[in-house]
Amino acid sequence: MALSAHHPTRAASALSPLTSFFLLLLPHLTLGQFCTETCPPLNDVGRPISSLCAGDVPPAAVLTRRHRVCRPGRSRTVALEDFRGAGRVTVLGNVYVGCNAGRREAAVFAHVGQRYYDAHPDRVAFVNSLKGGTDCSMWPELYERDTSDLYPEESKDVKSGTNMPLVVDDDAFTMRDDFFTTPFGHPSYVILDGNLKIRHKFVGPCCGISSYYGCTNSDARTLDVRISRAVDALLAETTAAPTAAEPENPSPTAAPGVVGCVAGAWSAWSQCSLSCRDGAEAGVRFRWRTVTDDRTDGMGDPCPETVEVRECMTSEVPRCSDVIGVRASCVPEFGASRTVAAASEGFDDPRDVAFHPAPGTHLGAYSEGREYPADKGEEAWVLNGGNHSVSIVAGMGTKGQTTMSRRDRGYYHYMIEATALAFNSVRNSGREADRDSFGYWAVCNDNLNTYLDTKEPNYFMGPTFGYWAVCNDNLNTYLDTKEPNYFMGPTLYNSDPSGGNTVNRAGKPCGPADECFLLHSDMLHEAPGCIGITHDPETATAFGNVYWAFDSTGDRVDGQLVRFDFQQPHGPGSMDHSVASVRRYPQVKLKRGPPGVHAGMVVHPTRRELFVAVPGAGTVLAMGVDSGAFARTARAEYPIFSNRLPSFEYSIWECAETRVFAAGLATPSGLALSADGERLFVAEHATGVLHTFEVASGALLATVETGRQSVGGMAVSEVSGRLHFVDGKTGTLNVVAAGTPCPAPYVSRVSPAFAAAVRDATAGLGDGFSLRRDADCAVDRTVPDFSLFEQVHATTGYASNDTDVQGPAGMDADAYLLANRTDCGRNSDLNFDALLLGGFYCHQCLPGTGGHENGATCAPGGTCTNVQWEGFTCDNHFVVDVTWSGGVRLLSSNGTVVDLEDLRLQYLVTYRFTVQGDADLSVHRTGEELPLSLPGNDCGCAEKGPLLFTPTPELRLGEHVYLWASGGDMLRLQLGSICVDAPACAGISFLAKKEDREERCRSMEQDCPVACGHAKCYNFVRSCRDENRKELFGSLGMDQTCAWVDWMRTSMPGGLPNAWYRRICLSNHQPYDDNSQPAVDEDGTAIKVYDMLVQERCPVACLNRECTCADNEVPFVTVSSINSETETEIEGIRARTCADLFNIASWEYRNVVCSLDIHAVTSQFPVPLKVHDMCPTACGFRPECFCRDSKADIPTPSKKQKTRRCKDAAYYPESGRNYWCNEMEQPTFARSCPIQCQNAYCTSRNVDSLDTVSFNGGKLHTSCWLMSEGNAAYKSYCCNAMEDDLMVTGGALCPVTCADHMNE
Question: pTM score > 0.70 for this model?
């Protein structure tokens, strides 16, 4: 739909907070429709949305689309084309159920419509589009009654609803999407002239008013004035009598039976549906008749049924083998013989597969430094439940076949344990080009990102061809780090990589060598534990984003079927979920299988039947997707949903035509339709058996053994017609290939005479023909509770209970406060959904998998840094810039130039070097021209893409490695401490005799730095570094450098520190500019920095306790421990870590272990290393190390919550605190938190801490010494405030300084 050439202006709007109780469960923020009349309307990031506006003529497809009129009368449809004619006027209204303002205005609309019809019956039509989930007759009855309040006198003569308005049951939202494209406000109106040109488009007067009576009678009646003026003006433009359109459904003559119903004669009974019985349970016979409802008031009993059905048993028909021989069941996909082989391998617990409808769309010919056969072969997308990703098998079946894996940066929410995948593969849908969602995909599981400014706008109303969805089998637990909040459902993606649909880690458009990530286009949250999903190939909706999902959670007893219509996907970078339709079918009861088992689903495109594998029941269900009826809103019974605005439909549907298609199966999983739609393939998960059923008859045609034991999703190739399936245990994508063809096609079990009878009945009854409808089923209709809907349309729809998450503009400046949240526990108050919406892709609370930490996906061993609202950077990712005029230089992942003197590569960390420019790159040892041979990269080089390099002891690298560019320039990179032993070193430390250990180490010292006692591995500050040691900064009014501070540490006689040394380290750090002068702001005022101390800037020089008290992470081996009294061995030689010591319950024995020697063997240490040297905190021999609370996660593996932090104890009741602080009960926690636990030894010391003390969310970093130097107000504040990370007062950390200032 073309964008109207209007000049939009953004209207201001006020936002109101939500107060309903269940908002605690709704963590996202969305922006809904506002009450501005700007057209085209602007979305939540200020972009215009393609819409029909005043002056436009709607496309022919819009004008000829037929809509069902549910009131007044029955059995009628209308198209806007019916109202074309000189002198005619058509008024369209747009209201939602659940909107009080809409009900108020609908009463005015009904009265005005009837009044104009009474005066101009052949010239004026009023059409009301009703949507949002309701019975189409119930809601009009409410507002028709309301007219008596608005028009107490006129309503005696004007009987609203008698003829006008025509209430259209807009359950597919087509009239809304055609004329009132969101985010245009509501209630709203369009007025068309006789040529069906839009002459007026406006929002009603009650928009934005929250209560029914808040919109007064006089306010509501201004709609009467506005419509009347416009209609009168259009009527005055011509006096010609319009040509009356022929009604589509002429009124029939009355007949006996139900008053107003006309019933025709019954047809003869059809023959049995089965021609032969092999593989079929039973068939059916039917007869039919026409029944016409001529009632105009829409009232009265239902008309009689049009179809009667009865069963015919298989005993009534012959066996197929008796009629057509043994060839009866040979299906072409399996042939007379077949092979089952792996088409691709190496997947991580694959659960589903789908073929991309347009191969090459996503990867193109080149991506992430690799070439792809974009124009050859097919493209299979395999969903990996194990690592929460999708693998793309490009060029499948060709010599160039290759696999690339991708996932979302927020995979732990958007793709977590994804179990099902579906593409929109509908070609030539007839939709407007910018609305066709062909190729979108979905997985069943307000942010101005910079890519939106560097690429063409990706309006959320754009073409949806290429979209896909995934279904997430998770309850939103963030990899089991949070309690489930059930806010989970399918995620929608656009496979077109442009427009921000794929980004690099920093949120920028992907470069040719960048690792790319998916950015979701939408997500809905009404199907936690989703294990199956399929796209509906319908063509009725405006956008084609309808998916059916298997919600295994349902009502917590049975799983349920859920229909998701994403409608207008919000697009990358937006979080507006106010435009969608979600319908639950609780009468379709589903049962899941074991964890991770996929449930296949597929919609037959012509029969309009949905087939669902039900693993826990051993069945396959079939349901008519266009059957069923609205019953009631789902908001009361299922209070966790995506949005509270009336434009978000969340409803319960009942009486859908459902049947058991197949039964007696062993955990059915994958489903797939044959290319011609005549056969349904069903996989049994554990047995690996593949069944083939005839769709038309339900007869079992063939069964094939695959030899696999964990079959998941299946898909049929559009090109070859071959059946493919994934197998979890083998990690493979497999193909079934027919060997010997069938000698002849199988013969259908459906009787030709029965098929002819079905065609006749369909021709006579149209959509009214059904063999499955339950005439006795009645929907449980109730009027919706308006309190379940947010009534102010300029509000958010839903919001987080965390005020630090988001604000009305979508990016709240206060969201940065989330960066300092450390309450990461499973039961903590921090909502991890809030982190994602607060712009955090890297955070200490976010989970990791596969060696990744803090939610990020840095190469193994890397540490991420969040770039709020955009993405994150990694400290082990670099760019080699060969375009620099000075030769070649190294850039960090955030684009800054790296000083090679300050960079040290660490062993066992994987580094990613991406070339910027046209050059090859290779890695070399010192003095060697040939590149290193690396695992998976024999040449140690990268031609165009990234070079991945992991230093290991086996490479024998020395102190440096070199990166050579093909132009001749090179970079010399330093290597850090070699504290990783090669596999051959195993056993050295377990040799009892020192002489034996020394002998082994003479030849292996370089490969075994830990076992052989390399000093770098046992440096007590090895976990810290002073960055830029010679860079100037200020402190206490003096120029400083880390190197100078380090000199002061030993500058006095005897190696004692200078008197200023400790004061400088405990003072604030003042940054300098590039000219080595104190940094100033725009006004020339020196920038005061209070969030960093010098000891944080120079931790090694200042001997920061965070470094000197840190337990060494290197594993070690101790000598035997001996009972001195009995001289018997308590424990032999054994390997340990510092963390092990916390679990020793007996403090006496822990002290014994801490005094043991370590088997590190070189002459670099004058005396043997002791365990307490390695583990100063765990052993506690040094009071300054023991009497400080840990800020890290403390493992509590025996509890449901696997980690805790010291600050958690501040919230425990006294009994809970006593339990966790008891060394006999919880030794690890008690010894890690002596200040929080008020350890008697630490309390008795009465010594001020030397640690940095943080207040006010990290905005103020201070020290006990700084507090002692401050004025009384400063001391009072710091002594009584709670420390950020520890939740103890400053006085507890600085008892001497605060002795006279507590509780002031």
Answer: yes
